[in-house]
Amino acid sequence: MLRKSLGFILIGLAFVLAACDTAPSKLSYPITRKADQVDDYFGTKVADPYRWLEDDNAEEVKAWVQAQNAVTFASLEKIPFRERIRQRLTEIYNYPRYSSPTRVGEYYFFTKNDGLHNQSVIYIQKGLDGTPEVFIDPNLLSADGTVRVGLVGASHDDRTMAVTRSEAGSDWSEIRVMEVATKTELPDRIRWVKFSGAAWQGGGFFYSGYDAPAAGRELTARNEYQKIFYHKLGDSQDEDTLVFEDREHPLRYLNADITEDERYLFLNISEGTSGNELRWRDLNSKVASFKDLLPGFANDSGVVDAVGDNILLYTNVDAPNYKVVLVDPKKPAKNNWAAVIPEKPEVLSGAAAAGGQLFCTYLKDANTNVFQHDLAGNPVREIALPALGTAGGFYGKRDEKVLFYTYTSFTFPPSIYKYDIASGTSDLFRRAEVKFNPEDYETRQVFYPSKDGTRVPMFLVFRKGLKQDGRNPVFLTGYGGFNISELPGFSPARIVLLENGCVYALPNLRGGGEYGETWHKAGMLLNKQNVFDDFIAAAEYLVREKYSAPDRIAIAGGSNGGLLVGAAMTQRPDLFKVALPAVGVMDMLRFHKFTVGWGWAVEYGSSDSEENFRNLYKYSPLHAFKDGVSYPATLVTTADHDDRVVPAHSFKFIAALQEKNKGANPVLIRIETRSGHGSSSTKKAIDELTDEYAFMFTNLGVKIR
Q: Kindly report the CA angle at 170 between 513 and 278, in degrees rounded to 5?
């Protein structure tokens, strides 16, 4: 091991020394070897000289990572106010944060983070007036606080709880089981699980599992042949019953769900992140096969609850803004459906049953409205919320009397309300106390035209008294994909931006779900360029309305938002001064070859199709760099345990950027360890934000207060 470690260090040192031969007017970057890799896509030759960076286990790649981090951290350490940013972030993060309580029998579960805990602690208490006790403290499970724990389902007799445990930010998790009353962990262990809940029936539960990946490829190998198993408590995993598999379609997600009365078992099948098929079984019947409830993958649907022998279904079939219908599973054809909640002009973003009532959440220009109905769809009331913002919760069992929901906005820290189902009254249950004054800040919603004239909304948050003199620093962020809505919500990290004079700008780009499936489809597949046009138009609006100027705009986004930043900075490098792409999908020709990347082909298309290849190649950030162009100051961030968007995307992107960038703007990559698709602990989150903000403020010329 000593000889191997020494070789690793010498290779890394060679990278840095070789870089010293570059021009002194710019940062000296590690030299990245180029290979003669060329692929033929339908007659188009595409060079991929940095393909070797995809092998994260190779010693050469490890040395390259070490060398890149050495340059990046040496540069960041020279920023004089870096530690002041860290101190303020640490201070602003240090406040108690709670989740809404969830009832399990006579007990309530909730999470609490005292402020700087790396992970929130899961508490249990008997009744709402009981004394909270620690159920699980994930901070005690690893030295660096990077083990995450989550509750994924209680048995219907309320005696046992399924718990997931994951390490170092990986999506891989292990399911364990604990007794609720005694807080005792049982010996059950279910490994190699991703994106699975626990659907309890009798003395066990259904779950989704994969075969164990090949050693050394746990974080990169494509995940195939997900299966549904039934685990009986007390059995070992190899005794679990295989309930469903599809050997003809290895690239499908499979998830199981069950009704509260344990009668109906549902199989949710999808070929990616959009569109699903539903099948069902009556567990009271001796027939063990699944039957079609909603075949095909053209729409998105989910089971709300069973009502007698029928099923309440939330769906966008013939309703881009979604609706709720009642379906007889024995006669599931559309012409037999009964309307419960018809489609409205506003998008129905969610529907849940609790306490014998139906709670429908709508979005109106990306703000939440919630309505209560009976199970037949008859209106009961609109639930009064504190102000424009975002509310979530409104779920529970059939015998609930009270529910809990959380309300938040950009400058309103999350507050938890107790809702009485019968009377419709909301009482404040818990309010977060953060060390800042929300009255110092203003939120404004504006609308601007995109390139094709589409009207796009955007939230702007800033300190009151802002002068529209064209010189304010701007933090422009977005997502624009996967039907995900970007809604008002509080972040302690944002306060540091606002305190230092930044305008926080969040446009609701096409590709999201703010205006239903029509808005989503307008920003996916062959329409993906609309998302980038919307984002670029947002920046142009901010310049036109004299909020800012191109040399004062920073753009940021993660995952699909990282793709957004990569596309925007390569298409309009003149419009932005700083770019912060995090864990981005940067190689649009090969994303589907790693872990669960194949599931995004329904959103992006795949280079295996000629039409989609032509479209992807036009905007793929990795392939969009041009010689002789000055690109924005860029800090790419990724992590070694990101097994969703593998680090190779960011590695290849920064290598190409360092090769092509002409100007003096620094272009760096920060590679975190024992972290994944998002920071794996509070400390790592603060450290990464510190470096992003320090880099951004320096390159925008912002004076830190």
A: 45
Flag whether 302 is in a domain. no
End position of a domain, from candidates 433, 450, 478? 433
Collapse the DSSP code of 276 into the 3-class scheme (helix H, G, I; strand E, B; otherwise coil) and give the result.
coil
Q: How far is the CA of 55 from the CAs of 309, 358, 648, in angstroms?
A: 53, 50, 8
List phi, psi (to 5°) of 439.
Answer: -70, -10
What does the alpha-carbon distance between residue 657 and residue 626 come to, in Å, rounded to a whole number? 9
Residue 189 DSSP one-character state: -
What digits encode the pLDDT tens for the residues 202-250?
999 999 999 999 999 999 999 999 999 999 999 999 999 999 999 999 9
* Same-domain status, 424 and 453: no
> Which residues span the domain enclosing 409?
344-433
Assigned token pair, 389: 């913002």
Strands 633-639 and 38-41, by their bridges, are unpaired
Supply the pLDDT for residue 5: 32
- Measured in Å, how far apart are the chain's first and last C-alpha atoms? 48
Residues 379, 421 contacting (CB under 8 angstroms): no
DSSP secondary structure letters along 192-237: EE-S---EEETTEEEEEE-PPPPTT-TTTSPP---EEEEEETTS-G
Element (H, E) at 14: helix 2-19
Find the catalytic residue in 117, 373, 592, 677: 677
Question: Comparing C-alpha atoms, which of 243, 299, 313 is closest to residue 271?
Answer: 299
Ramachandran angles phi, psi of 266, nearest 5°:
-115, 140
Partnered with residue 371 across adjacent β-strands are 360, 382
What mean pLDDT do residues 404-418 have? 96
pLDDT of residue 24: 34
Alpha-carbon Rg for the chain in angstroms: 26
- In terms of domains, do 414 and 488 share one? no
pLDDT of residue 705: 76
Q: Which residues pair with 637 in a beta bridge?
A: 582, 670
Asked if residue 166 lies in contact with residue 191, where contact means CB atoms within 8 angstroms, the answer is no
386: confidence class by pLDDT, cuts 50, 70, 90:
confident
In the annotation, is 156 catalytic?
no
Q: What mean pLDDT is predicted for residues 649-665?
A: 97
Residue 406, in any domain of the structure: yes
In a domain, 602, yes or no: yes
How confident is residue 26, by pLDDT bands cut at 50, 70 and 90? low
Say yes or no to pLDDT of 13 above 70.
no
Q: Of 417, 433, 449, which one is at a domain's C-terminal end?
A: 433
Q: Are residues 527 and 629 in the same domain?
A: yes
Number of folded domains in the chain?
A: 2
- Is the residue at 12 inside a domain? no
Residue in 597, 677, 587 with CA at minimum distance from that of residue 641: 677
pLDDT over 60 at 33, yes or no: yes
Q: Is 559 in the active site?
A: yes
Is the predicted pLDDT of residue 4 greater than 90, yes or no?
no
Q: Where are the extended beta strands (E) located within 480-574?
A: 503-507, 553-558
Other CB atoms within a 10 A radius of the CB of residue 668 amount to 24
Please tell me which residue in 450, 559, 606, 681 is annotated as part of the active site.
Answer: 559
The mean of the pLDDT values for the chain is 95
CA dist list (Å): 654 to 569, 579, 609, 666: 13, 12, 27, 11
For residues 364 and 446, membership in a common domain is answered with: no
Helix crossing, 529-544 with 560-571: angle to 10°? 60
Indicate whether 401 and 504 sit together in one domain: no
Across the range 5-19, mean pLDDT stands at 35
For the chain, the helix, strand and coil percentages under 3-state DSSP, each to the nearest 5: 25, 35, 45
Q: What is the DSSP pairing of strand 633-639 with strand 578-582?
A: parallel
The token pair at 360 is: 């429908």
pLDDT, tens digit, 9 for 90 and up, residues 267-292: 999 999 999 999 999 999 988 899 99
Helix (H, G, I), strand (E, B) or coil at 609: coil
Q: What is the pLDDT of residue 19?
A: 38
> What 3-state class would DSSP assign to 537?
helix
